[in-house]
Amino acid sequence: MDVVAYGVVADERPLLENAFRGRHRLRCLDLVLDRDTATTAAGCAVVCSSVNDVLDERVLTALADGGTRLVTQRATGHNNIDLEAARRLGLSVARVSSYSPHSVAEFAWALALAVNRRVPRAVSRTRDFDFRLDGLLGRDFHGRTAGILGTGRIGAAFARIAAGFGMRLLGADVARNPECEALGVEYVDRDRLFAEADLVSLHLPLLPDTHHVVDAAALRRMKDDAILVNTSRGGLIDAQALVETLRAGRLDGVGLDVYEEEAGVFFFDRSLEVMTDDTLARLMTFRNVLVSSHQAYFTRDAVGQIVDATARTVEDHLAGRVSENFLVPPPAPH
């Protein structure tokens, strides 16, 4: 069977090739799958998409017309896929339902620690042999309050680390996680979490009711010296409202591994181009903001699990099996 994978980065390619070797013919492309590139999947029964691909009705129609029968995304999030259109077209859709939660939780803490202790500024200075401490004053996380918005597997992993720091733990979610409660997480409403937390970390899926959950009103509720970290989905934060908050001199630090309009920017080298996204450009001018490349998941452990789960999904599809990874199962035979 012919399989094509989009948005493949260099470190991921050998893992994908090894997982499919001897089973299927695999093509790895660094292209974003969208309306302009959908024809490159012609003749491939399986498409392995990435989280920044655009899988709207028009793209899915082109894939179906070209012979694709399964779209399997190498990510847990799937807000970029029109699932209803896939059903109408008779396409199966799957994702990776879970992988190492530690990869994302640990990276969220890397961002939190880096902005709190001014690590990017310190590294920039010492490269110029400037070893002053001016402007590098951080604070202990011990004894302060961590607000965890979304307490699933990743949020729970983040909470375990926060507990190790000796922090007070607040959580907000539609359902309580017994593991988090055992750690001492106190479940509160979002407004209270924003108002009391010294560190707010986002671990929610992007859904209609979570879009811009951190909006201007939420930002106003946060402490002036709070730290905000997002390693989940960019659309959880109203980026323009965040810019205005930072311009007002509020928030001690912000760590962003994701950005609402990251498609076509993240995962690519844009260093020789003019940055036309004014909001992203403005965010990156603030010295207390650290932006990374949607890399929180990017560990050998997590990527290996993602690749293995993707390969298993293809085998399940061929065998007519439905696993927890399927969002749109294969159409029932007539």
TrEMBL record:
One of its GO terms (molecular function) is D-lactate dehydrogenase (NAD+) activity. InterPro entries: D-isomer_2_OHA_DH_cat_dom, D-isomer_DH_CS, D-isomer_DH_NAD-bd, D-LDH-like, NAD(P)-bd_dom_sf. Residues 11-325 form the D-isomer specific 2-hydroxyacid dehydrogenase catalytic domain. Pfam families: 2-Hacid_dh, 2-Hacid_dh_C. Residues 110-296 form the D-isomer specific 2-hydroxyacid dehydrogenase NAD-binding domain. Keywords: NAD, Oxidoreductase. Belongs to the D-isomer specific 2-hydroxyacid dehydrogenase family. This is 2-hydroxyacid dehydrogenase. It comes from Streptomyces taklimakanensis.
